[in-house]
Hints:
By secondary structure, the protein is an all-alpha fold.
Amino acid sequence: MAATTAEATAGVPSDQQEEEQQHEDQEDTDDDDVDDGEPRDRAKPGKKPNKKPAKKPSPQELKLKKEFMLIDVNNSGFIDKADLVKATGGYLPESFFTNAIKLMDTNRDGKISFEEYKIVRGLASSLKEAAFGKKTGDGKK
């Protein structure tokens, strides 16, 4: 007895069913790939992703980082009142340090980040140049 066409194709998915399944599969992979606004580099297996090289800090920024690290005595990555007291040997009143931090602490978290430090040092350099003039490498103004 020969099987009817309906019986022969009962377990075989139709073209429409296959397309729907592919669409669902695509949605499943999209869910795993959350778009959080970060660019994705989809390198092929065995190839390294194209990453931009880190920007090399300028000599001035390296100098500022060294200064910052000398003041950050507890190596927290921030300068706080305790760091300033230790760095100066405690010869100045605490109110001096409290006021200094208030002036530099732009995000009001009670400590000075490296970014805040760079801003203040840049302003200090600008004020120094305005008051005394910019020196050249030969000692002349």
